[in-house]
Amino acid sequence: MASLLRIDSSPRGNASVSRRLGDTYTDGWKAAHSGSTVTTRDLAFQQPTYVDIQWIQSVYTPPDQQTDAHKAALKLSDEIIAEVEAADTILITSPLYNFSIPAVLKAWIDHLVRAGRTFAYVNGAPQGKVHGKKAVIILAKGGDYSESSPMHALDNATPYLRTILGFLGITDVTFLDAGGVSMYPHKGQTEEQFLEPLQQKARELVTA
Q1: What pLDDT digit, counting tens, does each position of 31-86 carry?
Q2: pLDDT band at 187 (very low <50, low <70, confident <90, very high)
Q3: Which of 4, 66, 74, 132 has the fewest CB neighbours in a 10 Å radius?
Q4: Which CATH number does 3-205 carry?
Q5: What is the mean pLDDT of residues 102-126?
Q6: How confident is the model at residue 12 (pLDDT cuts 50, 70, 90)?
């Protein structure tokens, strides 16, 4: 049975373009996978804690020496890792904030990227331990950050997400660039006219 893990990070609720495109993808994915399961973690409303010294000390304490306090510090990380491990497809929806990702999404990543669990170093080289996953990233951006745009180099979210997922062993990564969210009214478009081709791309990604 196929399984989808959906990670949302925009705080804008139903007004969020990344979430709305995520809904389109999720609906298409469910239609294409009868009997499938969808797990959703909404980071805007289930905000993860930030990695602290207790977390770091717990990660580097051998399991047979971990106290109850160590285990409590890693509880959220264990849950996040288990959700990723159980999924066939991981959908991440996010806005581009200040040329990068929201802090809540970075916090989720910090709980996921864990030495000995999701990556290791073998003979000095990093080796991801999360395999057989497909990732779909929907990024909503206020401006145009396409390759032909002078703003392209300022999009730090796309290369970062590709790099960090690849570090874990997730190399089948597809991006849906929803650029121009703040620009369409100036082009005489309605919101629906702006979203329609992006929604079509989201549907096509289900079988891509």
Answers
A1: 999 989 999 999 999 999 999 999 999 999 999 999 999 999 999 999 999 999 99
A2: confident
A3: 132
A4: 3.40.50.360
A5: 96
A6: very high
Q: What does the alpha-carbon distance between residue 160 and residue 175 come to, in Å, rounded to a whole number?
A: 12
Predicted model pTM: 0.96
As given in the structure block, the two tokens for residue 185 are 């009214």
